[in-house]
């Protein structure tokens, strides 16, 4: 008896040791961008909006409701209408830690990483009672690249960082509740509580969770041939409605969800489509081995009728269906008429969740298929002693690690390359400084680098007309705003339209960044406004516009600032009609 | 239930969660009060992560799953994180509507009060259970 207990304790210690090593791998990879840029810059577009929201909470001591810097010159309440829980949570971390808001935000995804890895370990352990499955799942989840990594990489504070952890935990609790013979009401309460919290963190997390849970419930009902699971599902949704009530009391408006869907359709229409992913992207981001193992596990679940694992099946099926539906134009048009259709159209958002699901399935396949097969082979090769079995186990680990060397390498190089996103904003620090020092707080800007518009709002605190950020996409006049950028920056557009739109949006400054893409609205594509060799003639074309005056040229030639002479602008010009 | 017996119980393996929560809260209050200690910034960062993203959930898990043998240690840690996120967000909403607002002192006080209440209730529950078990024997 004592020996058995000692052996279990030893196995536990080994498992915890493995757990710590995998966590260290995951954290180290995700820490690379923070170390590269010193934690003083953030990557990408949405993180800067999140930083602005958190700074506002810190400044006012309350959740802000109106954002005067977005959707200039009107401002919008869409910016702070969602993810309020996420903003407030980050504000709490900044206040208690005493760190700079930007530093804390840039390391916040790394704080979530161990929580996610522990959650997937616990999930795999609960499903299989195998530490092997837990460790393999953790290992698979700690690697990745592209959209699947974005949810958890340093310098990229997104609501999905916390969202993925809450998503996985809620599914674990719901699964436990459905498998629990006593049907503990406490488990139901906590599941509902976490489901509601996911809504306060990010509506997309809640939306995906509800769909996955619904499909899981339907599968359970059909397998168990009873409908009481549907009643549990309804109770769960009812408990989670506290969060919807809280958010509703602050925003009282759902029209943004319709407009957001319309804007999402616009983004998906533009060529080349970069926001919509396909199955090839999934394969390359998750890796061939994990994809193969997860397919193997799906086959095992279906053919061996291991229905207790159908939660993973529902999870993967829903995520893959979302990706598939976003591929087909006719379905996309149909989705554009639904209030939350944007969550389908912008299908790249499923990647952080899908990666976890595939990692879980892959981990389960290792424990239930690969490991028993190796054991079987060791028996067949007449290695009866336990030491031989240990050696074969160690050999399996080494083989797995060797097989994953390319995946580890690509994860590391992705993290290193990702630093360039953070350095992207740093490269424009002199522009931000110039804007802060030489312009007024109510001067409206347009920038041909759409993402930089969000940085200007956050770091220079100046209003800009349009970016690819959520709150700008959720405006009813998105076409007009995009047309402004096309008309001002692209050669060949009607000059009079540019003048009228500059007047309508009260634009004071036009910023030109070298080597940038702009939305060509009439042709529905992103275009290079001026290739490097023709940039001087492009500048000359801008200089010749009588209503623009060049007031600043960056010494390194990276950016140019033009002021708009509003007195000479044409006001009554008909605008072309465009549809996505 | 005498206070002395209860305090003695909190020093045993079963009841030490109570002191863990108290020590973290005391340390957090110390660091918040001594804002000028810049060289211990990373200690404060680590402590604040525990204080915000672990402690409230941990004390709630202690209260809710105290007698649940099916919940593994790793699972408990994961639940603690998730529930901490949920509890802190709700506390923030409460403060958002109050006159205090989302500021450092009200936050530290509310998270501390929540954690102490839950962990005290959990310890009392465990203590009573242990006492009942002993009396049956």
Which radius of gyration of chain A do the C-alpha atoms yield?
A: 26 Å
**What is the beta-strand fraction of chain A?**
5-15%
Mean pLDDT of chain B, as a whole number?
A: 88
**Into how many domains do the coordinates of chain B divide?**
1
Question: How does this model look, in words?
Answer:
The complex is a heterodimer of chains A (580) and B (137). Chain A has 580 residues and is mostly helical. Among the domains of chain A are: 139-154 and 255-418, no CATH class; 425-568, Rossmann fold. Chain A has 25 helices and 6 strands. In chain A, strand 5 (548-553) and strand 6 form a beta hairpin. Chain B is mainly α and 137 residues long. Chain B has one domain (3-136). Chain B is 77% helix and 0% strand. Chain B contains 6 helices and no strands. The radius of gyration of chain B is 16 Å and the shape is globular. The model of chain B has no long low-confidence stretch (mean pLDDT 88). Chains A and B meet through helix 2, helix 3, helix 4, helix 7 and helix 8 of A and helix 2, helix 3, helix 5 and helix 6 of B.
Quick overview of this protein structure:
Chain A is mainly alpha-helical and 580 residues long. Helices cover 67% and strands 5% of the residues of chain A. Chain A contains 25 helices and six strands.
Keywords:
heterodimer, A: 580 residues, mainly alpha, Rossmann fold, four-stranded mixed sheet, 25 helices, 6 strands, elongated, B: 137 residues
Fold blueprint:
The complex is a heterodimer of chains A (about 575) and B (about 140).
Chain A: H1 2-37, H2 46-60, H3 84-97, H4 101-128, H5 131-142, H6 147-150, H7 159-179, H8 185-201, H9 203-224, H10 228-251, H11 255-269, H12 279-286, H13 288-303, H14 310-327, H15 329-335, H16 342-345, H17 351-380, H18 386-403, H19 405-427, H20 429-438, E1 444-447, H21 450-460, H22 470-473, H23 478-489, H24 495-504, E2 507-513, E3 517-520, E4 525-528, H25 535-543, E5 548-553, E6 559-564
Parallel strand pairs in A: 1-2
Antiparallel strand pairs in A: 2-6, 3-4, 5-6
Helix pairs in contact in A: 1-4, 1-5, 1-19, 2-3, 2-21, 3-4, 3-8, 4-5, 4-7, 4-17, 5-17, 7-8, 7-9, 8-9, 8-10, 9-10, 9-14, 13-17, 14-17, 17-18, 20-21, 23-24
Chain B: H1 3-10, H2 17-33, H3 41-53, H4 55-64, H5 73-97, H6 104-136
Helix pairs in contact in B: 2-3, 2-6, 4-5, 4-6, 5-6
